[in-house]
Amino acid sequence: MALGRPERASIPRLPRVARHIGDINLVTDPSAVSPPGREVRDPAATVAGRRRNWRTIGLAGGTAVLVVGVIAAVAASRALDATSGPPTALPAPRFADEAVAAGVRHVYDGEFTFFVGGGVAAFDCDADGLPDLYFAGGSRPAALFRNRSLTGGSLAFEPLADPVTDLDSATGAYPIDVDGDRLTDLVVLRVGENVILRGLGDCRFERANEILGLEGGDGWTVGFSATWEAADATLPTLAFGDYLIPGENPEGTTTCADSQLVRPAPGGSTYGDALPLRPGLCGLSMLFTDWDRSGRRDLRVSNDRHYDADSEEQLWLVAPGEPPKLYTRADGWARLQLFGMGIASQDLTGDGYPEVYLTSQGDNKLQTLADGPARPLFEDIALRRGATAHRPFTGGEIKPSTAWHPVFADVNNDGFSDLYVTKGNVEGQTDHAMKDPSNLLIGQADGSFVEGAMEAGLVDFGRSRGAAVVDLNADGLLDIVTVVRRENVRLWRNVGVATTPGHWLGVVLAQEAPNQAAVGSWVAVRIGERTVEREVTIGGGHASGTLGPIHLGLGRADRAQVRVTWPDGEVGPWLEVTADRVVRIARGATAAEPWRPSQSRP
Ligand SMILES: [Ca+2]
Ligand SMILES: [Ca+2]
Ligand SMILES: [Ca+2]
Ligand SMILES: [Ca+2]
């Protein structure tokens, strides 16, 4: 089939349907509030101004203050801007890799069993509000780094060596408060036994497999997700995605392993025996998500077809107290074979149901429900939206790409989600591109994506794997952490857009233990005439997870309204919030409050 290059003009308008959820109407036609064909760039931004801002990139120390000063000055000038009118998309922001200058030296390395994996966990382990970083190391030890960055300044980290955390054979890690004590714990995925590290505060941890009754197994684990299945669940249900069965001769291993579902023992504070998720089809990423807004979180598994001709994508129906059950053709689930590496999920169309981005080799997929929530039938809109990212956008190679970690995030705070997709050859696959730079797809007002990595200055030909998109220096601009096989990790500091920056908002949810971070909630945010929704999930990506404030770009809006649908379905009130800060919304509260990170101490 001849498929042309996606043209923005050819993107069909989405049906203009208002769907009633609770007491709000969600407008599903973004063009209804965002007329296409507008000038994207802010004409007020001069070339000179842009150069003044970017010239300081890469200079260390005090010049960082200058960058911040320029950004602050630009921010202050926004007071002169009109705050009404349709939202407009901003260009890509500039990024500068500060890993070495920040004191982060870490490499994910290893042979065959570590060709996949290469994860990072981003979360705050010392309650100072700055995300700390835990990197898997493959054949090298994993490593924890405490974030010492100054607010709005250059990045700074301190390595925290400890035999408890410096685990070998780790492929990835996900932060989650397993035991509900308000101290974030770590689930470390390994070739060998998976380990839960219980957070003790001040970035100290202890091994918790025994106290939790968790059998860590001996599999080759790369995927992970977690959900609190029932409102009274004492512990989260954990899903571990295993890839191949490790054999005596790892190079000859070609049999897909079963993945595992680990549920809490009835009424207890320990785990029961693992249930196999069979057939295992070489899963590399998994995500519990409420795809149909039924209130139940089902488990998506993205599988690599490389070793099994029968491999296909899977969706497990996971109902409390019942064995997990695969959705079938009769249910509407269609056969889709991918070299599945990673999952990202977010509602992009504004209908309240999440779209799903699946990375692969060649075309990546952007799935949307074809018939609404009645059945899990998805259609691919990646081509229409300009999000296939199927071959390198620069570097001169035309062979297909190999994509790994996808994440939706608004890196320029214009209110339109952007999409970061890491890329990199598996090792020596000559039928795929060797120079395969990661994508930074910038979301446009019409719902399409446009490549922005060159403009952003983050073209990188290293073999990228896991990633985290988080604000490392508390300036409201999302930074990018990328693990690169056999090379030092990258810490891309976001130094801002040259045009007037957008406003932003961070949201932290809190409810009673055990699920104190309210995983499974939906956060609705009214920004002017638009309403966007975010599902709070743990899992997906490629062997990498983040836990921290939910970050939203607000564009020109300097205030918004936020409403939380809690994991058990209870809908909270609309709360007024002011932009450019992190707010905490506690269940039952009648107002959002300023977030104090120390509140996460027990
Ligand atoms: Ca911290
Ligand atoms: Ca904990
Ligand atoms: Ca954006
Ligand atoms: Ca930042």
Topology:
Layout: E1 18-21, E2 24-27, H1 30-33, H2 47-54, H3 63-77, E3 94-97, E4 120-123, E5 132-135, E6 143-147, E7 157-159, E8 170-176, E9 185-190, E10 195-201, E11 204-207, H4 209-212, E12 221-227, E13 237-242, E14 259-264, E15 271-277, E16 283-289, E17 298-303, E18 314-317, E19 325-326, E20 342-346, E21 355-359, E22 365-369, E23 378-380, H5 382-385, E24 403-409, E25 418-423, E26 439-443, E27 449-451, H6 453-456, E28 464-470, E29 479-484, E30 490-496, E31 503-510, E32 522-527, E33 530-535, E34 538-539, E35 545-546, E36 550-555, E37 559-565, E38 575-578, E39 581-586, E40 593-594
Parallel strand pairs: 4-35, 31-39
Antiparallel strand pairs: 1-2, 3-30, 4-5, 5-6, 6-7, 8-9, 9-10, 10-11, 12-13, 12-34, 13-14, 14-15, 16-17, 17-18, 18-19, 20-21, 21-22, 22-23, 24-25, 25-26, 26-27, 28-29, 29-30, 31-36, 32-33, 32-37, 37-38, 39-40
